Amino acid sequence: METGTEIGSSGKQLLFAKGSKVEVSSDEDGFRGSWYVAAVVDHGPSSTPNPRKRKRSGGDHNRPYLVEYETLEADGGGPLSEWVSASVVRPSQPLPSSDEKPRFEINDVVDGFYCDGWWTGVVTRVDKDSNVVVLFPGPSSAHEIKFAPANLRVHLDWVNGNWIRPQQQQEIIQPKGGASSQKRKRGRPPKVRIERPIGLVEGEEKNGAEAASYEMVVKENSISKTVMQCAVASDGKDGNVIQSPAIASTDNGNAMQSSATASTDNDVSQKNRNLPFVKQSLIWETLESMEIFQKMPQRPHFRPLEEYKEDIREGLAIGYMVTFTNVVERISQLQFSSPTNTIISTLETISDLKNNGFDVDSISGRLKELLSKKEMEGQLLEELKGVEMQIMERSLENNKIDEEIHEIHSKMEELEEKLALASSRAKMKHCEVDALKSKIDIIVFDIQNAKHDFERLLTAPW
What we know:
InterPro entries: Agenet-like_dom, Agenet_dom_plant, DUF724. By secondary structure, the chain is of the alpha+beta class. The protein has helices at about 250-275, 285-290, 290-295, 310-330, 340-355, 360-460; strands at about 5, 15, 20-25, 35-45, 65-75, 80-85, 90, 110-115, 115-125, 130-135, 140-145, 150-155, 155-160, 160-165, 170-175, 190-200, 210-215.
């Protein structure tokens, strides 16, 4: 295949010669950012009207090309051919060496071969079979597709005649406008704007490549967040901002401050009257502001502490508060392989917390369900042992039967040998009998001849 450059009619050098293998970008709806492998068939004059793609002005480098696609078919059959602008044509991406096995990691920017073209996405995970899951951001949503490594390649941008590999880590950009809040109602996960190089798409071109922004739905992870969450409170529809309850209006703040302070003092007094001790430690504010107590508000009465000396009641109460947080944390870290005794011990601790007024019914219910699953596991493990024991017993019986079969086969082989020998001897005897019978016939014939000779001699004249 012819590659390299070619001199145009104007005497200027063309970027792609006839027969060159190239990639063509699409800016049609639903196909933006994709690249399709093609071959240059012909060059058009600078005045070729209405090529499919946008045209830059000036120079033979921007003359349109007639390309023939490798994977796209025309309506009437056969490879699709069309005129395209030089601005959306780039060389075919170089292939890695044959001894270089492609390896992809999370957050790598890659191209996946999908729907007859190369689409740019970001690696989100790699499974144990080396299959790679790639996230493809779209104008309004995002989707993931699993690829075999053979259908992926490292994403490269063609910039100023050079192949440039983008950075692995993507930049997360916050949406513009809107108030912020620490709380967000349940519903669809928040959107973030993710900026990535996707080749030539609509907008201002920058040396053969540009960056485009897409909105992508990001799943939140309670343990770690791989992207920065857009901190916008929502009423269930993205973009509709609601005020956070934690933020007070500055216009009404001064007017309400006095009544709020009085109300707070009354609440504190009321809480202390319901408790068998007075909250004096500064640690209470820290404890009650913890995330777990925001998600699961608690109003323990600590009445069982009345049996203890008043001086130590507050310390014991703080211990119960810490125990509650530890219990919730311990439950979140439970594994299916965790011992059953751990769950039973946690249930006993929860019972003690409940006696002190903690609202732990939901936690207790969850633990009991987990315990039932563990008990079911124990029953199934016992059943599994029984089945394995039966398999072992049956296997031993099968081994004995196999030995008997082997002995029988050995005896059968011995008998078959004896049978063959006896058959051979019988055949030999049959042959001897047949030979003797033939000899009898000869003897009888000789006897008849002797008899005839005898009679002939008797009747002969003297």
